[in-house]
Amino acid sequence: MVTGAGRTRVLVVDDHVLFADSLTLALSLESHDALTVAPGDFGSVAALLSRIHRFRPGIVLLDLDLGSLGDGRRLIEPLTRSGVQVVVVTGSTDRGRWGECLDLGARQVLSKSGPLSSILATIRAIGRGSPVISAEERRELIALAREQSRERLAARERLERLSRREAVVLGRLLRGETVRQVADALVVSEGTVRSQVKAILAKLEVSSQIAAVGLANRVGWRPPA
């Protein structure tokens, strides 16, 4: 929303108080109508969205770390559907994650480690109706995000091939246990555990325990309870 005299109403959604307050001050000095909302003050994403909509911002500067509310990407689509311009400002350096934000409708993704002037320039460009990211870079980031999504899906499908006992063994490897420790905990021989590890590696299509653990961690896999 644009208020009087060309002022843009900007909402900063970020739990990092010092960063958010500094950004809000800089926006106010550029004559924007700026306010900070701390996600931690809300019990649910729905409550946070309701508060954002009551402010009627033209632009939301959104952090991806919403604390107890989880991943800020959950807000991008509902905000953009309501006509809000979303600019993600994040400490994450994962460019695949940046591409996911763009694919969900964010106008731009900026690093918190970058200069404040980049954020202010982006706000000015949006206010003028100018592009804030090249079409080529946008395509590349979205393509990277979609490729990583396909890889995660394939990894999850391979993890689903594990038997329950193999999943238990992998879960213990995730906790940093050695083969001997796994064998002692499950009251089986080390040879039995080594055979199970070999089966795990074959099903996950990896060549080492480290690679198996890395694959499970990348997709957020957890062993059965």
Automatic annotation (TrEMBL):
PANTHER family: DNA-BINDING TRANSCRIPTIONAL ACTIVATOR DEVR_DOSR. The modification 4-aspartylphosphate is found at D63. Keywords: DNA-binding, Phosphoprotein, Transcription, Transcription regulation. One of its GO terms (biological process) is regulation of DNA-templated transcription. It holds the Pfam family GerE. Gene3D superfamilies: 3.40.50.2300. Residues 9-127 form the Response regulatory domain. SUPFAM superfamilies: C-terminal effector domain of the bipartite response regulators (SSF46894), CheY-like (SSF52172). One of its GO terms (molecular function) is DNA binding. This is Response regulator transcription factor. InterPro entries: CheY-like_superfamily, Sig_transdc_resp-reg_C-effctor, Sig_transdc_resp-reg_receiver, Tscrpt_reg_LuxR_C. Residues 155-220 form the HTH luxR-type domain. It comes from Nocardioides albidus. The lineage of its organism: Bacteria, Bacillati, Actinomycetota, Actinomycetes, Propionibacteriales.
